[in-house]
Amino acid sequence: MILKVLSGIALAATFLASARPLVSQAVDEAEQTKVGFSLGAGFSDFDPDVTQNPLPDDVLHEGWGQGRMWGATVWADAGIPASAKWVRGFSIEAEYRTIFAGGSAGQSQIRESHLAGGAAYTWRHWDRVNPYVKYLFGYGAVSFPPEPETNGTTYSQDSRGINIVGAGAEVRCTGHLWVRAEYEYESWGELLGPHLQPQGFTVGAMYHFRRSAQR
Questions:
Q1: Using one digit for the tens of pLDDT, what is the confidence trace for 15-55?
Q2: Which residues are 205's β-sheet partners?
Q3: What is the per-residue pLDDT across 121-160, written as a single tens digit (0 to 9) for each?
Q4: CA-CA 20 to 30 A from 146: which of 19, 88, 170, 200?
């Protein structure tokens, strides 16, 4: 399944690259030393758990992970000022995502959200397209239909630490506005029995604020 997803990303990137002369100009040495701050948001289409394993002895959650779910993602990215060549291209990224719509009948009341941060590396060799990879870690929360507890309360939310790996590309539209498309794979700590492993795509836009050269 993951190989099919990665193949889809490659095809999408090829289409974007062929739509206009994106890679016709390489970025010079001075441009690669620039850093800045970016904000963006996008639409996310995710499988909430690629393991597709029903939770044991849990009728309410049977079938979790067997339908795509949709939501939104917000990004913030800050460059790292540095003169050393090996540091250029690295940045610090923060991300918030929530998926809450769609899914199978057993997922109609499920929401997965997370807040994470970490490092990204962007290859700024070309003027109009910037491929990147990233690793984030953070805090994830999932809400689900209430379950009765023995003490008379209900259990409808839980949270765990998560790790995220992702890859994608940004394509310049005009001025400071870029289109971003990415794939991410998440690994959650043991939650409600299994380890959740969401994965999916996000497509959106980033606004790159004015950059200044580092000397």
A1: 444 444 444 454 444 444 455 899 999 999 998 887 755 54
A2: 41, 179
A3: 998 878 889 999 999 999 999 887 776 666 666 767 788 8
A4: 200
Rounded Cα distance between 55 and 13, Å, is 36
2-208 to CATH, choices 3.10.20.90, 1.10.10.10, 3.40.50.2300, 2.40.160.20 = 2.40.160.20
Q: d(Cα 135, Cα 171) in Å, to the nearest integer?
A: 21
Q: How many Å apart are CA 103 and CA 92, to the nearest integer?
A: 32
Query: Binning pLDDT at 50, 70 and 90, where does residue 108 land?
Result: low
Structure tokens at 51: 């393991």
